[in-house]
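Dear colleagues,

As part of the handover before I leave the project, I'm documenting each prediction I ran so the next person doesn't have to rerun anything. This entry is a single chain, and its sequence is reproduced below.
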Amino acid sequence: MSSSSLKPARIASLDQFRGYTVAGMFLVNFLGGFTNCPQVLKHSHNYLSYADTIMPHFLFAVGFAFRLTFGRRISTAGVGAAYRKVVTRFLGLMLVAIAVYGSGRAAESWEELQHIGVWGALYSPMKREWFQTLMHIALTAIWITPVIRSSAGVRIAYLFGSAALHVLLSHSFNFEWCSTSPNVIDGGPIGVLTWSIPALLGTLTCDAVAGAEGRPNLFKMFAWSIVVMGIGWLMTCGTRLYDVTETQIAEREQDAKMQKLLTDEINGRIAPLKKELGEVGKTIAGLRAQLDGMVLAVEQVTDPEEREKLNQELKAALAKDSELRDKIDVIKEEFQAYRDGTEVFISKQLEIKAKLAGINAKLNGSKTVDKVVDEKQRAKLTAQKEALIKEDAVAAAGLEELKANPQDPNATQVRVFRDPKLAIDPVFPSQARIDALKARFDEQGWRAIVAEPPFVYPPHTTPGVGKRSVMLREWNYWMVSQRQGTLSYTVIAGGMSIFLYAIFYIACDIWGLRLGLFTTFGTNALFAYALHPLTGGAVKAFMPRDVATWYMWLGFAVFMLFTWLFVRVLEKNNIYIKL
């Protein structure tokens, strides 16, 4: 169906649903930084918490409203004007995002800014600070604009294409890039590809609601939401390929200690250079002040020789400043190269251990009679096992040598201290991982391959592991991660959005229920969102991170009241901030 055939009447459930998502953002954004905040209200990177569901819900509402209003705009203004309005609107939202989120100071001095250049200054905000909710809304809307008027089949194909492209780019570079400093927040610049999934699901739901004769088929909406959530959950089962064993926990703890020693050594080498750099900066500032004074003071006669002397001192100081910055960069590059280079030994050991697990499973027999190993096969497997143990010993010796001599220029160019939480093969698992999972399946059955459902933290058998995700399983593409904007995450959350919206439709459009808070926030969402960091900051000024639980909830109530009052005043005066 074409978007122009959608009904023009305002849909109450959409405003209420959008208001709910805004209120949900306020809840998790305000409480998330406090020590006593429940885990389910905090964003996580390895399972789906309540906090992680909010942003996909909002993107769902954006897609729904975009599909609905674009058809109306075309009917009143024409196709060309409608597209120009859309592009202008969302480009404006991108500028608002930059203004709202800002970024830290790129450099502390003019010399440092010249040293890092344009890309160095923009790298962090373009990777992290700017790419939060508002920026993703704008980019996602622009991304789906080419198909917003298309048939359901075209939009579904576009959804699958966006998902496939995200997988390929994550495999190529994006997964590890997102997980290196500075870490991205909501999937980074490439996150638009998966954020388009809940948005496009919103357009399809819009068709079902606004294009229906009478009430939409709610049974079908609920059924499709369960199907979509099921597909997303099946994707998360791939994360079981990356489970961390008891032995790996000890190895990671040892590696973490070695990393800290190396980091301390690097910081120790950089600290005196930074101190010297600070002194040089003061000298440069003083020389410039003298030169400026010689120009500005009219009554002062400029001595050419003195001025030339000062200029020469300034040039020397600037050269020293540049030299020190280059030295610091070299040290950082050595450290980064040492950590992030080839992973030959690590991947080799991973492969060996997986093969050993498979051989041990066969040697120990199986639950099924047809898999019992005969003596001839047992001898062959034992020989293979002994060869693998020798190979593993060689790899282990190589690693120990590198750890003992991390800066030996003659050492093999293999870097040991890769971030232990990141899988080497995060998107497409190695055959060794698959073999290891098969071996665990033979021993444990379905428990070895079934992932946790949403809102359930990944368990572990080791006492004391707690909620340190690095100790539960290596980070990979198939886990639910808002930071990465992984495919499984947006698919599950997109299915939840359909389910929850159907409930809102029943409550609001059939039963006629309304909640004033949701109405206020839902009809002035942009202003409410831009305002909440200001009101939240004002309240949090009186709230240390470790406040008592009752005080934390009281502070939240005060914050919500202040925010609602501001937005309510605009609503009563029929003022709505939109682009």
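The longest helix spans residues 246-296. The radius of gyration is 29 Å.

All the best with the project,
I.
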